[in-house]
Design brief:
Chains A, B: This is 2-dehydro-3-deoxygalactonokinase DgoK1. 2 copies of one chain form a homodimer. With 338 residues, chain A is α/β, with parallel strands linked by helices. In chain A, the strands form 3 sheets. Chain A has a 6-stranded mixed beta sheet, with helices on both faces. In chain A, α3 packs across α11. The first copy, chain A, is globular and about 65 Å long. The interface between A and B is large, with 51 and 51 residues.
């Protein structure tokens, strides 16, 4: 398990979540030399063998996954620093890392990494999460790194308000201004979609479709904005089934309709909250391409304009955090990549 | 499998849903003589044996369940009429019964029963469901019978608007006036609660509690009404987990908090819709006692007053529908029970 790249690296960066682990090997300008995608999320780590020479006794699932992710990279360049973000820093992770209170200066994040010692081997530096204690409490782990990546790469005036959308299992919408995260919201849209589809009557009439039905998605998207949408998502989701019973929505279109319906309720609520605040910030969206396209349709439909799409935010964030923490030297301006 | 009651019956009434079957033996005044509760919902019928004398060949799961529910009652009094409501009349049921379009005169329901012939044995008369085609379509099967029962037993002026709440897996809120069902809404609150608890991250930190934590329920109930509630239920549900992480909500209290949160969003939306309509009708609630108590707290909190509790609505509705359909003679006024 070796990689062919002879280029010298400066950092190993790990995006280590609940269900998967991505490893990046970055050079001295923050450019990605190698990427690996492994299934070893913190809830599904490789199991240490109880005997046999293949696994040194006492090695944890975290160590095993770490070895597969970047053991060879570290043997080739033993002095590379390692930074990691995500649920690896949760109470169920390798080591519990701090939560920083919002509002927070982003620069502080890089000064509060949690160092995991590894018996003299290269330590791992885990990025803290963010916690918001006013109103209903809210937490994030991993998304703070994406926000860091988006904000440090943006060309705009950092004094401007920006709203960063990170759609996924738990969508995060993060308000930032003058290098501070000022507020964030979580929407469990992705996980609720999966639970409704897999474990309620709505899934029973859905038929697997070979391609997306974007017309059904857009039909669902609009529901939150029509008078019947006032009943809220606990009510409108039932229309997925009722439209099927009345012959108005085919089984193959019901999953995309439901996806649109949920994303529509999320973005409609977001738009209402932004209007109450009296400001419509610039919006940046970052995440899986197909999912971002759905959110772009939703943002347009609910009058929030067309957002900018940010890419590679996690590896950019891990890079900038490692620089900010002094794990890697500040690159000279001639090396910097955008 | 015989019952000891020697009293003469006038009707066998079946409440036959997805997950269970209730059978009632009623006398000539509509009083309940016997009740049986069987697990034979239409999605979990008894399986006909493939051979052996115990099961006459060709007998369906519906016939087997029917025999267990009331076979002995019919052998004792072979000429009793039988009426049934609920999902037994769905496409997956014994025989698909009609849907009547809302608005609908309740008296019409009794004139459009679907008759299931049983090879010369006593036929079964299935109550039609209701369908609402304006706005987002909506359907019910079984609840129309409860509405019938509530409205025919009420002492108030039938010209008044009444809103009948039927909390459960799928809560129904049914507007009626002058003997007509004019509108209804469905909220999938109960099923969403079960899916969130059983199949999302929210369930992972919940700890089974021996008793209900009504303080946690009421705390969740209020969320829809505070500023953070504007983000909608897809967002606020995450506070179940976040309050646990911040040490503000014990694992044993999280299920009741989530229950309150969901019911709060349902009733908050209902209250907003009623205020937009400009009228606050009398409210009647009908269903499982403990669940109705939760809804009463919610209705009070969101300014909808204290509803009347209706009991035995299904058997009362089946009785009145059977009278209305001419299956049983109209009782003389001296026999009538309230």
């Amino acid at each position: 398990m070796t990689t062919g790249s002879p280029a010298r690296a400066a950092l190993i960066a790990l995006d280590w979540g609940t269900s998967s682990l991505r490893a990046y090997r970055l050079d001295g300008a923050g450019r990605t030399l190698d990427t690996r995608h492994l299934p070893w999320g913190i809830m599904r780590l490789p199991q240490p063998l109880q005997d046999g020479a293949a696994t040194p006794s006492g090695q944890s699932g975290f160590e095993l996954a770490f070895e597969q992710a970047c053991g060879d990279w570290l043997r080739a360049e033993p002095h590379l620093p390692v930074i990691a973000c995500g649920m690896v820093g949760s109470a169920q992770g390798w080591r519990e890392a701090a939560y920083l209170d919002v509002p927070v200066d982003l620069e502080r994040i890089g000064t509060l990494l949690t160092r995991v010692e590894r018996n003299g081997a290269t330590p791992v530096h885990i990025v803290p999460g963010l916690i918001q204690r006013h109103g209903l409490p809210n937490v994030m782990r991993g998304e703070e790194t994406q926000v860091f990546g988006v904000l440090f790469d943006q060309a705009d005036d950092p004094a401007d308000s920006v709203l960063i959308g990170l759609p996924g299992t738990h969508s995060k919408w993060v308000n930032a201004r003058r290098g501070q995260v000022t507020h964030f919201d979580t929407f469990m849209t992705g996980e609720v979609y999966a639970a409704l589809r897999g474990h309620t009557i709505l899934g029973r009439t859905m038929i697997e479709a070979p391609t997306s039905d974007m017309a059904a998605f857009e039909r669902g998207l609009k529901v939150a904005g029509v008078p019947a949408g006032r009943a809220g998502v606990l009510s409108t989701i039932f229309s997925t089934r009722a439209l099927g019973l009345t012959g108005e929505l085919a089984g193959v279109s019901q999953a995309d309709y439901l996806s649109g319906l949920l994303i529509g309720h999320e973005i409609s609520a977001l738009a209402d909250m932004l209007r109450l605040q009296g400001e419509l910030p610039r919006i940046v969206v970052c995440g899986d391409d197909a999912l971002c396209q759905r959110y772009i349709l939703a943002l347009r439909h609910y009058g929030l304009g067309t957002p900018r799409l940010a890419q590679h935010a996690t590896e950019r964030g891990l890079w900038h955090l490692a620089v900010s923490a002094g794990l890697v030297p500040v690159p000279s301006s001639s090396e910097t990549t955008s």
